[in-house]
Amino acid sequence: MSEEQILTVESIMSAEVHTVIPETTLGELKEVFERVHYHHLLVHEKDVLVGVVSDRDVAKYLSPFLDTHNERSDDRQQLKLNVADIMTRELITVDRETSIDFASILLLENNISCLPVVKENGEIDGILSWKDILKYHVYGAEDE
Amino acid sequence: MFAELSPAAKRRGLSASQLQELARQSGLELCLFQKDAFQSIEKKSSKGELGRFHVGTRSDAQLTVTIAKDGLSATLDLEPACGGAPVSPKGLEAELSGKGIVSRCVDKKCLKDLLTELKQNPKLQQRVIANAIDPVQGSDASFEVLVQHCTQIRPKEIEAGRVDQKDIRDFIVVEPGTPLMRRHPPGEGVPGTTVTGSPIAAKGGADRAFEKKLDGVNRDEDNPDLLVAEIKGIPFFTDNGVKVEPVLTLKNVDVSTGNVDFDGTINITGGIDSDFAVKASGDIMVKGLVERSSLIAGRNIVIGGGVLGDVEDHEPSLTSTTRLQAEEIISAKFISNTYIESKGDLNIKEYILNSEINIRGVANLGQEGGEGRLLGGHLHAERGVNANILGSDGYIKTKVSAGCAPELRETLAKQMSERTRRGNECFQLQGILEKLVQSGNIERVGKIALAKNQKIQNTITALQTKVEELDLTINEIEQRVESVLSVAVKSEKQVYPGVIINVDNGAHQTEYFCERETGKLSVGGEPEENKEPKGKSDE
């Protein structure tokens, strides 16, 4: 692997991405976040990235009394909200050939923790998290 | 030594044996007595003669040291003592010293033996006791090769226990100014000495100068005994000289040379045997035939004979054994079953058979009265094809294309897209940097802010460099696309069925399928001349 390849997002991003569609409900989303170890999900329409939703977004919209003896009737209604209602639509993205330095600056300066990696036509290509960048700086990029 | 007979009161006879015993008792038995001395005295005694009679002599040992006239040796003669004193070590030392013999010339072993022998009172003749020290002759002038060059031919180990029998030598290339050979002047030698210490002059070593004809090399300005390369090339060494050839000339490429990888131009006056690889950063020139081998040149490939590929290789590709790759022009008499890639033109005199060819220049077939036939395979020449005959009466499928290859446009689109993306990234970073500057005096913020500022600036610079590179590539591809506006595939004599021609001049594509034998034909060319109907032969 050449030095130039190491310096691009392609060498450190995760190509396997867990995605949801805009119609996914908050209830379903809550279950997903309870199962997985990551905090962001990419939202797609026909493979094209349309938004990003985080476990914080879910927490923000769901009542803390849900599934407790203090649960109110309105609390359960919120579970029927869609991902489209709460997702972030202002997207900051990179592509495979973006340099790791640039991606790092984007994460830091925009105070975000992951970057969707998209193709030229907007199709989801992968995801790059701050952990991926940290791992790269500590351990270097993995050889193919 | 005398015996004295004097009168006695009582007369008694003296026998020889009594006299001998008397001499022994007197310690005179080692003296040199005259012959029959005791018998003579016995006789005189019996006759009553009186008087003093000479019976013999007593002498000390006699040591003589003789120095040869040339002073190269000294010998020793020793007469043993007869009843007298033997030679003492001190006496020997005094004799040697007295003759002026220097101690470093004395044969120490001989001396040691001699001192032991002296106790035996020996007789010695011409015993060599000292030798001159020979002068040491000066060494002859010699020549030292200062670069490792091709002296050994043996397969190189490519991994533990495995060797490549064709990778047997490196052809070293030297840069101008490289020290190549040093002359060591003859030595003066070390003088010797005679046994008496006089000097013997040493003979100086034989002198030898550098070879007179020194092509491509110079004497070092500060050291006339040092030869340095004047030009870049391959050094060839003789006993007393070196020349640097800008061109590596080989008779053939075969088992004697192995694969050849040379930083420069290679001239092969013969041919290239099967299954060898020749690589040069400059030109590769082959006078004869290339058999099933690969040639990669940084500039041109010129083959006087032809290229015979593997007849079993029906679809030559980049991984084929027989392939030619050049950054500039490729010329040959004929080509068969070969993969060819070139950034320049392709000039083939006779024919191209069943080959896969992709060149950026013009393909010219049939110069100097050659047949100029393309038969089978696929020839793509970005800037056009000029041939005499396309296909054959066997109706062999032959594909010819010119102009923009579809991949070229894809590459252009990709490069332009990336240029846009990198440009946007650059723009974003400039915005971030601007915000950072506007947020206050960076220098007062601290080291982290300064490092951030520097990092962003460096990233912008890297992106700008990338954008410049992309601009260059895009510009080059655009020029290539523009240059094919009037590209054409031309056949001067004959086109046979089975020939498929595809011309893409960037604006539109023209396809031509030859369904029956056709004479002179041109497909493509100026846009208004592109009248060849798709799927029909030119009538």
What does the secondary structure layout of this molecule look like, with pairings?
The complex is a heterodimer of chains A (144) and B (539).
Chain A (H helix, E strand, L loop, with lengths): L2 H4 L12 E2 L5 H10 L4 E6 L2 E7 H7 L11 H5 L5 H4 L13 H10 L4 E5 L5 E6 H10 L5
Parallel strand pairs in A: 1-2
Antiparallel strand pairs in A: 2-3, 4-5
Chain B lengths: L1 E4 L10 H10 L6 E2 L3 H11 L3 E4 L1 E2 L4 E6 L5 E7 L9 H10 L9 H11 L5 E8 L10 E4 L10 E4 L2 E3 L14 E6 L7 E2 L5 E2 L16 E3 L6 E4 L4 E5 L2 E5 L1 E4 L9 E3 L2 E4 L8 E4 L3 E3 L3 E2 L2 E4 L3 E3 L3 E2 L14 E4 L3 E7 L2 E4 L3 E14 L3 E3 L7 E9 L3 E6 L7 E6 L2 H33 L3 H4 L1 H36 L5 E8 L3 E6 L4 E5 L7 E4 L15
Parallel strand pairs in B: 18-20, 19-21, 20-22, 21-24, 22-25, 23-26, 24-27, 25-28, 26-28, 27-29, 28-30, 29-30, 30-31, 30-32, 31-33, 32-33, 32-34, 33-35, 34-36
Antiparallel strand pairs in B: 1-3, 2-4, 5-6, 6-7, 8-11, 9-10, 11-15, 12-13, 14-15, 16-17, 35-38, 36-37
Helix pairs in contact in B: 1-2, 5-7
Strand content of chain B: 25-35%
Our Rg estimate of chain A from Cα atoms comes to 17 Å
Cα-based radius of gyration of chain B, to the nearest Å: 51 Å
Quaternary state of the chains: heterodimer
What distance lies between the first and last C-alpha atoms of chain B, to the nearest angstrom? 149 Å
Shape of chain B: elongated
Strand order of the largest sheet of chain A: 1-2-3
Span between termini of chain A:
7 Å
Structural class of the secondary elements of chain A?
A: alpha+beta
Q: Would you give an account of this structure?
A:
Chain A is α+β, with helices and mostly antiparallel strands. Chain A has a single domain, classed as Roll (CBS-domain), CATH 3.10.580. Chain A has seven helices and five strands. Chain A has helices at 3-6, 26-35, 55-61, 73-77, 83-86, 100-109, 130-139; strands at 19-20, 40-45, 48-54, 114-118, 124-129. A three-stranded mixed sheet of chain A has the order 1-2-3. By secondary structure, chain B is an alpha/beta fold. Chain B has seven helices and 38 strands. In chain B, the strands form eight sheets. Chain B has a 21-stranded mixed sheet that branches. A four-stranded antiparallel sheet of chain B has the order 8-11-15-14, with no helix packed on it. Chain B has a three-stranded antiparallel sheet with strand order 5-6-7, with helices on one face. In chain B, α5 (406-438) packs antiparallel against α7 (447-482). Chain B starts with a strand and ends in a 15-residue tail after the last strand. The model of chain B is unreliable at 529-539 (pLDDT under 50). The chains are: A alpha+beta (144), B alpha/beta (539). Chains A and B meet through α6 of A and α5 and α7 of B.
